[in-house]
């Protein structure tokens, strides 16, 4: 019984899937895995170095605005983010191209939420909670998919209720 399960697993399919991924998607996955591996050693704390900590943002540590999506808390966080991000980023990059994806993800799709989080955290909440992980990209890409779905299918009908499809990521976010 167990041998039939293992015989159905085919590494060639996984290899083909990875080779089919666009360049930037593969690069992001590689950087996330390398950042997780760098976090295993004890001489240098990559989480402390690259996480987005609102109190520690300055001109000399502005790199944190772009490094926090690549660094994760632990292995489970890393795996879940990779599993959620890969198909979404694959679709986005396939549609808009590699250079556009690089410029958007390293530019406004990371910096605008990071600056907004820092302002909200420091001025409104008055806390200093560090943030790390590619979840920001997952939710941004879920928003893109929600708007795309809304254009073709504006409502999800459950019984007599009509729920706008663009609200589904918000519902999922509040449920998670």
Automatic annotation (TrEMBL):
Keywords: Membrane, Transmembrane, Transmembrane helix. This is Rhomboid protein 2 like. One of its GO terms (molecular function) is serine-type endopeptidase activity. Residues 62-170 form the Peptidase S54 rhomboid domain. One of its GO terms (cellular component) is membrane. The keyword Transmembrane applies. The chain crosses the membrane at residues 21-42, 62-84, 96-120, 132-150. The keyword Transferase does not apply. InterPro entries: Peptidase_S54_rhomboid_dom.
